[in-house]
Every structure is written in C-alpha cells, then in structure tokens.
Amino acid sequence: MKLKLLTVAFATSALVFTGLFAAEKKMGMEKMTEIPFSGPTDVAYSKKLWEKLEASGLNSVEGNLYVGGPPHGKVRETVEGIIDGKRIIVKRNYGGEGLSLETVAKDRAKFLKAVTVMAKREKGYDEQNNDWFWVKYKADGTLHKNPKGMKLAGRIAKGKPVGCIACHSSASGGDLVFIHNKEANAEVVYVK
Question: Within a 13 Å sphere around the CA of 81, how many CA atoms are in the beta-carbon half?
C-alpha cells in the first residue's frame, strides 16, 4: 500500500512539473542559456560608458580618416584614450551616398553610421578575450541590434565564427587590437 501511494505521489509530481514546464514554454518563459551579450548588465554598462565617452571628449575628438571595409564603414576614424584607468578604443564608422574621405571631413555627422568601441574591463571579465567589452552605438548613443533584436553590447558573438571577437582574434599583437597592423589602418589619435 505504501509503495502504491509513493508511486502515485511520484507520478502526480511528475505530471505537475511537466505541466508547469509546458505552461512556461507556452508562455515563452522557458529557461534560456546565458548569452554573453545583450543582457541588462551589458546594456547598463554601455549607457554609462557612452556618458563617459561624452564627458571625456572622446566622442568629439577628430581622428585621422582612412578607407576601410566591412563590417565597419568604408571610411572610418579611430581614437584612443583612457577612462577610469582603462584603455578605450573608439572607431567611428561612416557610410552613405556621396561618401569619400573629403565629404566625411567636411560633414562627419552626415555620414556617421555607427560608433564601435572596445573598452578594457576589470580583470576576469573575459580573460579568454583580454577582458575587452564590445559595443556598437548609433550616432545618438543608442545601441545597434543584431537581426534577432539583441542589443550589441558585451561579449558580442563570443564563441561564434563571425562577429567582433572572432574578427579581432586575427589581429597581430595578441591583444585583439588592429592598430598594430599599420598597413591596414591609419595612425590612431591618442587623447590624453
């Protein structure tokens, strides 16, 4: 009799659990694996970082314009500085009709499509990728999103064959920074 009651209790518990899981799944609340970017912490950090870029002047310092290619703009500029004792690399990506080095130099705001930033974080943030935080802003400081609607802030596409980290892993120098590749990039403007 006790064995029969135990079996019924177990079966009832299994049905309840299965029913709850099915209800959660139906409501879109199934447990998701942790995503390395686009979470609330990454978004909040990106907002604070934008404010610091504005306050420090890194967003308004003009760099040397140079010709580039995908995924960044056909014309770009890179400036580098230090915020809160950490290295920050800001790349402005330009595009649009009538784009050239000359037209961008005359009206940067007209052609600015994105501001991509690499910011060093605290040790242990992402040791596999030298503790870099990656973010892609629109010209107004709001975040770009990928085709799935995920905000581009954090360890963007970590572990994927394409994306910020995958591409920058090919940079010489071992620190995921392309400024070492002088033949592919203009001199960087350093802001003190």
Answer: 21
Token pair, residue 138, equals 């629109």
Helices and strands (H and E) in the chain: how many: 5, 7
Report which DSSP code applies to 61.
-
Residue 9: C-alpha distances to residues 16, 17, 22 (Å): 11, 12, 20
Question: Would the pLDDT of 29 be above 60?
Answer: no
**Where do we find the tokens 């709850």?**
20
Distance CA 111, CA 25 (A): 44
Sequence-distant (≥ 6) Cβ neighbours of residue 58 within 8 angstroms: 79, 81, 83, 88, 90, 191
| Bond prior to 36 in cis (omega within 30° of 0) | no
Preceding omega of 40 cis (within 30 degrees of 0): no
pLDDT in tens, 45-89: 999 999 999 999 999 999 889 888 788 889 999 899 999 999 999
Residue spans per domain, the chain: 1-31, 34-190
- Overall size of the chain counted in residues: 192
- pTM of this prediction? 0.75
* Residue 186 burial (CB count, 10 A): 16
